[in-house]
Amino acid sequence: MTATVEVEQTVVRPVQFHQVGKAFGHGRNAVVALEQVDLDVAAGEFVCLLGASGCGKTTLLNLVAGLDKPTAGRIELHSSRPAVVFQEAALMPWLTAAGNVELPLRMAGVPKAERRAKAAELLELVRLGGLGDKRPHELSGGMRQRVALARALASTDDNTGANAGKPSLLLMDEPFSALDAITRDVLQGELLRIWRATGTAILFVTHDVREAVRLGQRVVLLSSRPGRVVRQWDVDGLSGSAEVGAVDEINAALRKVISSHAAA
Amino acid sequence: MPQPDLQDDLYDAGSVEAGLDALDTPVNASEGSRARRIAGRVLPPVVAIALLVAVWQALWAAAFWPEFKLPAPSAVWGQVWQLVTSGEILELFWVSVHRAVIGFAISLLIAVPLGLAIANSSVVRRGIGPLVSGLQSLPSVAWVPAAILWFGLNDRAIYWVVLLGAVPSIANGLVSGLDQVPPILPRVGKALGAGRLGGIRYILLPAALPGFLGGLKQGWAFSWRSLMAAELIATSPELGEGLGQYLHNGMSLSDISMVFAGILLIFVVGVGIELLVFRPLENSVLKARGLTVTAR
């Protein structure tokens, strides 16, 4: 018995889903967004959630982020507060880039000097060092999304108190889908670099198979209405023809899921 | 994931990214020299005023109307100049402006909690929201008779009228400012760890600031208007002489140049405060958020 407990402690999973379900509305009109979802993310793991629209990807992320509550099952979080990056950068327009990164620290009551240093460090990490004084409207879409990433990382970084030493978790909701192709490509590379540099676990929602295979170590395919885990692929370290093959295979599975809705 | 030469890859990505940043950053065109910009902003209104005075002078010289209906521009200027040299103008300004400022400040203290309550609670909104909007369109002069009957001819009656003019505007401005906050911002705030109070202080209030400033500006205009109406109707020696009373005295003395001088001074104060206080405030807030291309 004690042995199992010890094992449980050594393999810390930042997030574990136990038969999670989420329905919106009540009674007959209820829309089931998620049903019986079981999903684990290991510490430092990069997991891509893939699905067509309406599969509850965003709902799932909101549940982990604590922005919404599941209606069935439970989600176990073993991490400091998850950092969230949304599809839009949603920077506060009245704050500078550095001010935006400092915002979560300010709300957590971190002293000013420490805040400054942390924000500068994070902006450096997303290669925006020296641009901290810029306002959001003075930045390009890609740069704004990087500020949003730095801000999210700042919010997860409270290694104080009860959360000390627990693996951190980054949630990303189609963060690059509003960007042009070149910027997206560059930012995908940047994200991989930052992931390696920080060792954070990432749960990344996308509807782009190629993106999922390029970024993720594991790709999880969700069905639509209700969202369920259909299949998972281990895509870690694939390259060349193996990568192309995985993309084709996952694409086929995704198409199958989508076309199953045509009958209904 | 392909991981060939990591170091080389990094350098490459960095320079591509830097290039993209340089290309994608919005460019602000310069607006020409400072002197030209100032001239461009100051000249049009000056020319307009000069034209207006010229037309006035011409009408007066043509003697369409008798002198007691349309005074000469110089006669009005004479009245103003006399107030300036005798120092009387300071007292007029002081009496009216300090009332307006105090009235505005009290309005602010009442309107902000009221606006927050309406914006945050649907019950309060349904209950008194329409009432507050309705009060905004009710001319606050309508309250002068009631105020005089309740409070007598004193400052309290005047403040009552000013409050009823300014509070609805400021409260409504705050409500619409809060309503226009994009819903993603409070969500982001929550994801970043904002509690209820933190969310209001760090996200909602700053996000609502542009709308709120609009409300403040309108609130000032309403409080100034209401004050002048109240001063004009409620005149008594105990109240001291403000701009409204000065205007009223001009009417009593059938001195049209004094009446015109009174209108001019009321106009100058109202516009002056807007230009000196609210316009710069609004411009700096909008500009910082990239909401205006050029300052107005």
UniProtKB/TrEMBL annotation, chain A:
Residues 15-249 form the ABC transporter domain. The keyword Transport applies. InterPro entries: AAA+_ATPase, ABC_transporter-like_ATP-bd, ABC_transporter-like_CS, ABC_transporter_ATP-bind, P-loop_NTPase. The keyword Ribosomal protein does not apply. It comes from the Bacteria. Pfam families: ABC_tran. Keywords: ATP-binding, Nucleotide-binding, Transport. GO terms for molecular function: ATP binding; ATP hydrolysis activity. This is NitT/TauT family transport system ATP-binding protein.
Automatic annotation (TrEMBL), chain B:
The keyword Transmembrane helix applies. It is a multi-pass membrane protein. One of its GO terms (cellular component) is plasma membrane. Keywords: Cell membrane, Membrane, Transmembrane, Transmembrane helix, Transport. It is found in: Cell membrane. This is NitT/TauT family transport system permease protein. GO terms for biological process: transmembrane transport. The chain crosses the membrane at residues 42-65, 100-119, 131-151, 157-178, 199-216, 256-278. It comes from Kribbella antiqua. Gene3D superfamilies: MetI-like. SUPFAM superfamilies: MetI-like. Its main location: membrane. Belongs to the binding-protein-dependent transport system permease family.
